[in-house]
Amino acid sequence: MFASRQAFSQLRHRLRAGACILVIGSLQTSAALSASCPATVGHCPPQGCSTSSSAFAPFDPLLNRQKNHPDGPAVPKNPPFTVADTMDEAQLPVHVPVTPNGKDLRDTWKLTPEFTAISKFEARQGTVEGYVVHAKKGGAESCNCDIKTADALDTHLNVVDKPAANVDPATLPGVSLIAEITWRVRKNKHADWTVPNLKLLDLDHTGARVRITGDLLYDNVHWDMIHKNQRGTLWEIHPIRRIQVLVKNKWVDFSAAKSTLAKNAAPAGSAPLALAATAAESDLSNAFKPRWTPAQLQKLEQAFGEDRS
Description:
Blueprint: H1 3-16, H2 21-27, H3 61-67, H4 83-86, H5 113-122, E1 125-137, E2 155-160, E3 177-181, H6 183-189, H7 195-198, E4 209-218, H8 223-227, E5 235-247, E6 250-253, H9 254-264, H10 294-304
Parallel strand pairs: 3-5
Antiparallel strand pairs: 1-2, 1-4, 2-3, 4-5, 5-6
């Protein structure tokens, strides 16, 4: 069973049983806020910084340290995951919050068996194979000291397993995994990992099959996004260290595949999409190119909601 549904069933059971949510809830706002934060990302510490308590993404310094790993090579030691694998508690553990709002700050459960199990996976890199539904710039986050300038913002990719041909695109966020490019990685060797370039991977552009490798991260403060069907799992690839595209049945690094992606891209927003090439003609192996109308694409955009994860 998928982690999101199974874990929410456990959460509802606890709430109905009268779990002591008020005490835990008070603990979950205990992370120390700052009077001021650094103005540039170069001075932002690994634990991040925040001057205000965000209802969407509360300040969690232990989580931020995981998000702010330095740049380094992609060295996964396990076979690739599917997105469905990352939702399976038999493969990746979760921690179920007691509070109904799900702001599950790590300091309140750092002595639990779940913390130990999750930490073992977060010490590893992982690879997920699938399709990018949506590439976009994130918002200001406490891991980046709430800085709003473009150089401080992470880039978010929502990745899904291959959808059914008749899928309602508005349902895809709820079965997606979020993978993120951080400024630390982008500034070193991946200046071309920009949102306009990465959007070439989107299902409404090329539908390329991708492999994304990076650090496994459990983003514990976003149970509300699962409840709203804006993501399918709290596990992420964060930061991304390598992006590959399946070109003529070979995995090619994103930078080397950009020209192929541009050649095979379809203009977004037409109804149906005017595909640049048929599946038989495409250089992109196992690509998925849906024929979505502008109205369907608008519903898809609305389904993602606000994402500063």
